[in-house]
Specification:
Elements: E1 3-4, H1 5-12, E2 15-17, E3 23-24, E4 26-27, E5 37-40, H2 47-50, E6 57-60, E7 71-73, H3 77-92, E8 104-105, E9 110-111, E10 116-117, E11 122-123, E12 128-129, E13 134-135, E14 140-141, E15 146-147, E16 152-153, E17 158-159, E18 164-165, E19 170-171, E20 176-179, E21 184-187, E22 190-193, E23 199-202, E24 207-208, E25 213-215, E26 221-224, E27 229-230, E28 235-236, E29 241-242, E30 247-248, E31 253-254, E32 259-260, E33 265-266, E34 271-272, E35 277-278, E36 283-284, E37 289-290, E38 299-301, E39 306-307, H4 308-318, H5 321-338
Parallel strand pairs: 4-5, 5-6, 6-7, 8-11, 9-12, 10-13, 11-14, 12-15, 13-16, 14-17, 15-18, 16-19, 17-20, 18-23, 19-24, 20-25, 23-26, 24-27, 25-28, 26-29, 27-30, 28-31, 29-32, 30-33, 32-35, 33-36, 34-37, 36-38
Antiparallel strand pairs: 1-3, 2-7, 21-22, 38-39
Amino acid sequence: MDMTLREIAAIVGGTVEGDVGLRITGLNGLKEAQAGDLSFFADPRYQPYLETTPAAALVVDAAFADGRRPLIRVGNPYFAFAQLLKHLESLLLVHPKGIHPSAAVAPTAVLGEGVALDAHVCIADGAQIGARTVLYAGVYIGRDAVIGPDCVLYPHVSIRERVRLGARCIIHANSTLGTDGFGFMAVGGKRVKIPQIGSVIVGDDVEIGSNTSIDRSTTGNTTIGSGTKIDNLVQIGHNVSVGENCTISGSTGISGSTLIGNNVTIGGQVGTAGHLKIGDHSMIGARTGVNKSVPENSVVSGYPMHDHQVTRRIMASLEYLPDALRRLRKLEKRAQDLEP
């Protein structure tokens, strides 16, 4: 990276205060910044780093008052910095282009204009790949699957038969969409598999982290709404419905037939029971055991699950529990000594 503050301000729609010709050679956080880097200040908790950072310039909001270094003023410094990261990524990230000779494409598969297939990609009969979509090495696209335009599937992603992805989806390495749901019944003392004949439908602008698995439904579809972002190592069971613009953090497990509303935030290592409903705009704290449905606009946490404020009081009281137990035993002994 080698740009002037004037050029950077044009990208984010900001105003420069100071040397507009100052050259910036990198982007970094306040704590990690080096000489020549551009950083940003958006959270008062990082105020102490302003005193020690060697950053050459800062992206700040209108209220920022420290004038010791050149500034780019914007409405939202964090968002502006994200725009700059996206611009830099476009320069650094070079996707495969064209169709590699080792790619195996079935005769009935349909490739849109500008599709790129890396080495050893396999596309089965009837699959459709949208325009400008990029499939990295070792990607498998199953029979009659549909991948929308402008998607990126990183190495060794598996999209099973009849799965549908919308536009501009990003699927990170080793994730699988459309594996069989975990469905078995007990017959004569043995576990008998229940066929999983449904599929998975993913909306537009969905991003799915690496090593995540989304099961196909028993019948019907497992669905992921547009704009939802799913972290690494997430398991989503069969017949789950995830709404739009949700965030699901790593190592979370969503049991079958759970219905998740829109704009739901789920922390890491959350586990849900099946057949529950999680309402719109709710938040579930990390490591919560969700054993019942969650009303919309709720904030819950803990195991067992409680309202987050109740969980905070429970956790705070645990520190005093050993002393309280000792006092209780002393009181019990005194009461016994006072008995006739």
